[in-house]
Design brief:
The chain is α/β, with parallel strands linked by helices. The protein is built from 8 helices and 39 strands. Among the domains are: about 55 residues, no CATH class; about 70 residues, no CATH class; about 100 residues, no CATH class; about 80 residues, Helix Hairpins. The longest helix is centred in the C-terminal third of the chain and has 37 residues.
Length: about 650
């Protein structure tokens, strides 16, 4: 609520501010002239002044009754200057500015129809200030008379660039500078030439030049900054470019930007261990469902131009193109982006984007056909996979020939029409099943089933369901084979007594992991024993009240940290081991190992926790687990025919 005391306080503060203000009374030919005089007197720019008009003055008639404008001027209270540099986003930015070059102060004298005007500019950097002597020299050279010495002194001191009338001269209109114009380059450029004014002539004026250009139909592209500069720094008898037309800009054609390399002929080789890997030629352009394949950049409209005379110069719009897509590719709702609808290989056929779910290798997988294959779909190899090469697929892999010492990895099935001869280095992993004529000296892992018609020889095979050898020569000889449900073959082992290990009734991956964990636990236990021994040694020294060095103390602290970390790691290992053991013991699958023809001595049978090493030859038998013992029963035939991939 406002009361009388508030008003009194406010009036008292206003009175104090008024007493502190520096004010002057000045007069001029008009208000603008009076403000210029006040700016000089107070040493401030006009924009930082407040004023009151005491007498607006009169123009009079034919010089009679004329009076000057009288004002009282004073600085604006608490004038605020904003020196903050802000970027387009509204927050402060750091700007690195070059240090300006040193420049002396300047005195500019211009002769106009109203008299002689003077402008004085401050020096820059370490430049020298302009002096009264310098100003008088220029004024005298321009034949200026009736110079106001007191005013000149103030102008020199202020040096703010304000233009102020300082004296008179004998004006001769006939000596004013003449301007000529020249229009060239098909009306795209306009230049002027200014003749040097004669004695008594005025200097060139910005407004006069602009009006002159407009009177000569020069209305577009005028360089006002250059013309403004001519006021203070006139150039005579020289052609000066003052206007330039705007050239028309034709719009760019629409285009398609592909998000993959469309030049299949340009092989980009990778380096491996500092050497070029010629097997990795990256010829397949894999894409995933939902991936953006290409984007259409729309045509651009042309930007019309204009000549200096204002004549319109039309521009051409860019040409449009049709953005077409083929199978397994869709366009976004705005028709701008092409998106894959499946995983696969992106190819361009007849100008259309397509995603193929199958990648076909026309021959063998080797350097000639592009090297290693990695594809987010199904791979069909019409030849063989040579030694040292890799084929990886998110779908299936089908090889019409053989597979050598190579690596095959598929999320689905792997089907080899001939055989896999790994030469003790081949590796095959399938998310579902592995199907081949024969398997030899290779490592095979399958998420479901492994089927070989002619035999499995000296292989490490793991299947989460079944391992089947079904055919005329369906023999399992040597190696280690593990399956959760069944291992089935015509013959098991050989006359020579090859070391053949067959394990069923458990999850192969879990058991493999259990072996790895127990090995880790054993190594960690040894490491922990060593740490505890070192800790006990140092603790005994402490008990004997022996002084420990700083290094010994630091080492002791490190041992305590290692002990804590090792114990935590041991706890994690024990938890995982217990979890896997519980999982294996809970499996309801008992497992069967069957031979339709013969089992040779030397074959080792594991069915869950039961074990049997075959000492005698058996014919047409099935091994089962009966209360913790391996029992030999009559042969149980397969319920399905696995000789052909369904």
């Amino acid at each position: 609520m406002v009361n009388i005391d508030n008003i009194r306080d406010y009036m008292r503060l206003q009175a104090e501010e008024d007493r502190k203000r520096k004010w002057i009374q000045v007069e001029g030919e008009d208000l603008d002239d009076a403000l210029r005089q006040a700016a000089i007197e107070l040493g401030l720019p006009v924009k930082k002044l407040e004023y009151e008009i005491r007498d607006p003055g009169k123009k009079g008639i034919f010089g009679l009754g004329k009076s000057k404008c009288i004002i009282i001027a004073y600085p604006i209270v608490q004038a605020v200057e904003s020196d903050l540099d802000e970027d387009d986003y509204g927050f402060d930015v750091e700007r690195l500015e070059e240090k300006p070059e040193d420049k002396d102060g300047e005195v500019i004298v211009r002769l106009t129809a109203d008299g002689a005007l003077i402008s004085v500019y401050s020096p820059v950097g370490k430049g020298k200030k302009a002096t009264e002597k310098q100003a008088f020299t220029i004024l005298n050279s321009r034949n200026v008379t009736d110079i106001d010495n007191s005013l000149l002194s103030k102008i020199i001191k202020n040096a703010d660039g304000t233009s102020v009338k300082i004296g008179e001269f004998i004006y001769n209109p006939a000596s004013d500078p003449l301007v000529s114009v020249d229009i060239t380059d098909f009306e795209m450029k306009s230049s002027i030439t200014i003749r040097n004014p004669g004695k008594g002539g005025v200097d060139i004026d910005f407004d006069n030049i602009i009006n002159f250009l407009k009177n000569n139909n020069i209305i577009h592209g005028i360089d006002e900054e250059r013309i403004r500069k001519l006021e203070n720094y006139p150039v005579y008898d020289t052609s000066i470019l003052v206007a330039e037309g705007t050239k028309p800009i034709n719009g760019n054609d629409a285009k398609i930007i592909y998000n993959f390399d469309i030049a299949r002929s340009e092989i980009k080789l990778k380096e491996k261990n500092g050497k070029v890997d010629f097997k990795e030629q990256n010829l397949i352009k894999n894409v995933v469902e939902g991936q953006s394949l290409a984007r259409k950049v729309p045509l651009e409209e042309g930007k019309s131009g204009r000549t200096v005379t204002g004549r319109l110069l039309p521009a051409k719009d860019g040409k449009d193109i049709i953005f077409e897509v083929g199978k397994n590719v869709r366009l976004s709702d705005d028709g701008i982006t092409a998106v894959a609808t499946i995983n696969g290989q992106v190819i361009i056929l007849s100008g259309k984007l397509n995603v193929e779910p199958i990648y076909v290798v026309p021959g063998d997988v080797n350097l000639k056909t592009g090297g290693n294959v990695t594809f987010l779909g199904t791979v069909l190899v019409k030849g063989s996979v040579d030694d040292g090469f890799k084929v990886k697929a998110a779908g299936n892999i089908e090889v019409l020939g053989n597979v050598g010492k190579a690596e095959l990895d598929a999320e689905g099935d792997i089907i080899v029409h001939q055989g896999i001869s790994g030469k003790n280095g081949g590796y095959v992993r399938a998310g579902k099943g592995v199907w081949a004529k024969f398997l030899e000296n290779a490592i095979i892992e399958a998420g479901e089933i492994v089927v070989a018609s002619d035999g499995i020889i000296n292989c490490n095979v793991e299947a989460n369901k079944k391992i089947i050898c079904q055919g005329k020569r369906a023999t399992i000889v040597g190696g280690v084979l593990r399956a959760a449900e069944d291992i089935h073959a015509k013959s098991l082992g050989s006359v020579a007594g090859s070391d053949t290990v067959l394990e069923v009734g458990f999850d192969p991956k879990s058991k493999k992991r259990l072996v790895e964990l127990n090995d880790e636990k054993e190594n960690l236990s040894k490491e922990l024993d060593g740490i505890i021994l070192d800790i006990n040694t140092i603790q005994n020294l402490i008990k004997l009240k022996k002084k420990l060095s700083d290094e010994k103390k630091a080492y002791f602290n490190q041992l305590l940290e290692k002990k804590s970390e090792a114990e935590n790691q041991m706890s994690v290992l024990n938890e995982e081991i217990e979890e896997i053991e519980n999982h294996l013991s809970s499996l309801s699958v008992n497992g069967h190992i069957s031979s339709s023809f013969k089992v040779f001595p030397g074959v080792k049978i594991h069915i869950k926790d039961a074990f049997l090493e075959v000492k005698n030859e058996f014919k047409a038998v099935t091994f089962i687990n009966d209360n913790g013992l391996v029992k030999i029963t009559r042969y149980e035939e397969l319920e399905e025919d696995y000789s052909k991939k369904k």
